[in-house]
Known about the structure:
Layout: H1 2-26, H2 39-46, H3 48-76, H4 83-95, H5 108-120, H6 154-167, H7 171-199, H8 204-211, H9 215-223, H10 228-244, H11 248-262, H12 272-280, H13 286-311, H14 316-322, H15 333-347, H16 352-376, H17 383-396, H18 403-416, H19 422-441, H20 453-474, H21 480-494
Amino acid sequence: MTSSLLRTVLMGALGSLMLAFGSLGVGWLANVSALRRTPLIIWMRFETVGVVVSVVALALGAMLLVRQWLRLGQKLTPWGPSSARWVLVAIGAWAAPMLVSIPLFSRDVYSYIGQGRVMLNGLNPYESGVSAIDNFFQLGADQLWAQSPPPYGPVFLWLEELVVVLTGADPDASALLFRAMCVLAVIACMWVIPRLARLHGVNPRRALWLSVANPLFLTNFVVAAHNDAIMLALALLGTYAAAVQRNWKGGLIGTTLVTLSVAIKPITLVFLPFVGLLWAGKNASWPRRFVVWVLTLAYSLALLGLMGAVNGFGFGWVSAVSTPGTVYIWYAPIGLLGLFAQLVASSWGLNGSAWMHAVHSAGTALAALTTVVLMFVGRDSRIFRRLAWSLAAFVLLSPIIQAWYVVWLIPLFAVTGIRDDWQVDVLFFITVFFTVYAVADQLDIFPYLDLNLIAARVIAALVAFTYGVYLWVLDPATRRIARNQALHRGREAVL
C-alpha cells in the first residue's frame, strides 16, 4: 500500500510539474516581465509549436492532478490515523511546483499591483481605476480594471500597497509575494479544517483531502494567488474561535476575525449572523440571539468604520461591490435566465439590460432571503451546515460563478460531512468541470501567432474534456461505477 500511495503522490506531483511547465507558455505574464527574455519562455510563447506544447502540458497536467487526487482518496479509505501523513505529503508535493509557476487561470494578481499603486499615490481606488496610474497595462492588469473600483475591503487595499512598497511594483516579485500570502492562508486552512471537522464528528483527514488537497483549492489559491485564500482562512478561523468558546470571548474573537475577512472581500458578511448564533451559546433564547446579532453587527460595523476612517475611504467598498452590471456567465442559472430575459425584452422593444439587472437582483434577494430563513430555521448543532447553504445560495444565485467561488463552499461542506455516494460524485464532477473550463478559458496567447486564442482554447478544451470523460466513464480505477462498487465493498467490510 505504501508504494501505491507513493506512486499516487508522485504522479500528482508530475501533473503539477506539467501544469507549471505549461504556465511558462500560456500563463499570465506582465509585458515588462524580465522572464520574457528567457530563451525557453520565448520559444514557448512566440513559436506555434511551443504554444501547442504548453497548452497540451497544461491540460494534461491539470487533469492528471485531478485523477491522482481522486485516487488518493480511494486508497486512503477507511481514513485511519496514518492517512493524515499521506494527505499532508500530497498537499506539499502537489503545491510545490505551483509556488514557482507563472500565474494561471486568472490575472487578478496583476490588478492587485495596480490597485496598490493607486493607494501608494494617495488616490482613492474606489474612485480611481488602475488606469489612473501610468503604465498599468504593461504591468499585467486586465483592462477590465482600468476604470472599475476594486471589490475589496480596506485590509486588502493595505496589503496591496505594502506589496508594491516592498517590491517597487515589479510584477514578478509582487506576484510571488501575493502568492506567499496565499500560501500562509492555505496553511491556516490546513490547521483549522481538521479541527472544524472534529467538532462535527467528521473524519478530519478526509475533510482535508476533500478541501485543501482538491486541485481546485490548490490551483485557485496557490497558482492563481487569489486573495480569496486570505478571506476564507480568516473566516474559517473566526467561526472556529466562536464555535470552540461559545461565549463572549469566543464571540468577540470570532467576530473580529470574520470582520477582517470582510475587509478582504465583503462576501463573508454572510458568516456574521451564524457567528452570532455561536456567540449566543447552545440553546440560547430568541431574545438573547437577537441581542447578540445586534452586538455582532454593531461591533463589526464599528471595526470596518474605524478602518475606513484610517484610510480615509469610509465605506466606499459598499458602492464598489453593489454597482449594478450585466456581467454573466452561461453556466450560472441566474446568468442564463438574465440573458433570456434580456433577449425577450429586447425583442419586444423594451430595455433588455434593465430586465437582465432585475433578474440578477432577484437572485441576490432570494439568496439574502435564504440566509434569513437559515438564521431562524435549523438545529443548533447544524449551524455550520446552515452557513454552508447560506453561502451556497449567494454563489448559486449569482449571475457569474467563478471557480474560486466554489472553493469557498468546499471546506464548509467538507467539515460538516460529504457522503461517499452521489455527494462525492457531485464534488468530483464540479472539480472536473471547473478544471476543464479553467484550462480552456484563461490562456495568455500572443495575438500574432498562426495559432490564435480560439484555436488554443479548443485544443485545451478537447484534451481536458477527453481526459475528464475518460476518468468518469472509462478509467477502471476512477469511473463512477467502479467507485460505487468499491464503496459498496468497503461498507460490507465495515459491517
